[in-house]
Amino acid sequence: MVPSSSPSAATATRPAFARWMGTTNQITRTFLSAGAIPGLINVAGGLPDPSLFPTDRLAAFARRAVAEHPDEVLGYGPIEGLAPLRDAIARRLGSPALPLTRANVLVTTAGMQGLDLIGKVLLDEGGLIAGQSPTYLGALDAWRPRSPSFRNLVLDEPGFDPERAFAGAQFAYAVPNFSNPTGRLVDLATRRALVAAAHRTGTWLVEDDPYGTLHYDGAALPRLIELSAQTAPGEPYAGPVIYMGTLSKEIAPGLRIGWIVAAPEMIEALTLAKQGSDLCTSGVTQRIALAAMETGLLEEIRPAIVALYRERRDALCAALSAHLSDCFTWEVPVGGMFVWALAKDPDLDTDALLPHALAAGICFSPSSVFDARGANRRGMRINFTLNPPETLDEAMRRLAAAVAAYRAS
Ligand code: PMP
Question: How far is CA 217 from CA 308, 326, 335, in A?
Answer without folding.
Answer: 13, 27, 7
